[in-house]
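Lab manual, section 2.4: Encoding a predicted structure.

Procedure: take the sequence of the chain (125 residues), apply the prediction step described in section 2.3, and record the output as structure tokens. A sample record is shown.
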Amino acid sequence: MARKLMLFHMLMALSMLTARLEARGKFPIVHFIDAMSRPIDLHIRSGGLSSSAQLQPGQDYGMRLKVDDVHSVMSVCGSTFASFNAYEPARDKGYAAVFWRGSYKGFYMSHNKVHWNLVARWEYE
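Recorded output:
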């Protein structure tokens, strides 16, 4: 019984240490929210890496960043497009999350989901 208790305490201590180490190196989660009634295609680039996602109306797509670098986005919705930097270290470092809401005017950004600023307007091809 004493060995099991000691093992339990060791595992708990190791788990807490691992969580602290992970928290130090964590970058924010970037959320993309589709507040429109049609899909939005996202093309995300950072350095030599790229990824894509299609947001459905009402969807919240979260992406944990792996590098502390600018993440550029080109978004397409029907015949309109918008481009913006979803993450900029100088602007966003220290925040737990960066929220982007796609609406009929364009993309709004927030760090708290309360105060939103229009950052990128839709443009026509």
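Check your result against the sample. The chain has two helices and ten strands.
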